[in-house]
Each structure stands twice: as C-alpha cells, then as structure tokens.
Fold this protein.
Amino acid sequence: METIIGTILAFALIWAVGAVVLMIISRLNLGLTVDGFGAAFIASAVISIVAGLITWLLGLIGITLGGTGLIAAVVSVIVSAGVLLVSDRFVKGMKVNGFAGAIIAAISYGVIAWLLHWVLNLFI
C-alpha cells in the first residue's frame, strides 16, 4: 500500500514540476503558452502520457531515444516537439506556436527542467 501511495505522489510531483516548467516557458514566450497553472498541470500530465506512448510505439519498430551524440539529441528534440504538438490538440489551455515554436519549447523544456532538477537536488 505504501508503495502505491509513494508512486502516486511521485507522479504528482513530476507533473507539478513539469507544470512549473511549462509556466516558465509560457511566461518567457518560448514557443508555447498556457492559460494558468491548472492548464499547465493538465498539459504536463498529457505530455507525459503522450511521450510514453510515442516512446513505446517507436520502441516497437526498433527506434530507441537513448544514446549519445548529436544525432540522438536531434532525434530527441524532434520527438519532444512532436509530443508538444500532439499534446496541444488535447489540452484546451495550451497553445504551441507551430513546429518552430515546438522545437524552441522542447529545447527550453529540457534546459529549464534540468536546471530546476539541479536546484532541487541542492536542497534535498
């Protein structure tokens, strides 16, 4: 029972951090906008689900997103931009500004999430 509660809390925390990152990207006008924290939280959950599905589907055909190097980074950014574009269709309060906006938002999301994770690790 404790494991289930811990897992649910971990998902909620990941989605909340993702929502904060989306709010930062939105406020800095980096390729997407969200209407508020509620929309950002829902968008974070949808992005996680869509990313999981796309990663799973790519894995079925033999494409993995792991690896190192420039090619892996470019593929990861393009897949992340695709995830944002697909998620835009499902979340009413989120708007992605085209494919170029999705690329900028995907890169921004990765950088800001990494920085936020780094800062949180300083205090935990």
The chain has one domain: 2-123. The longest helix spans residues 2-27. The beta strands are 32-34, 94-96.
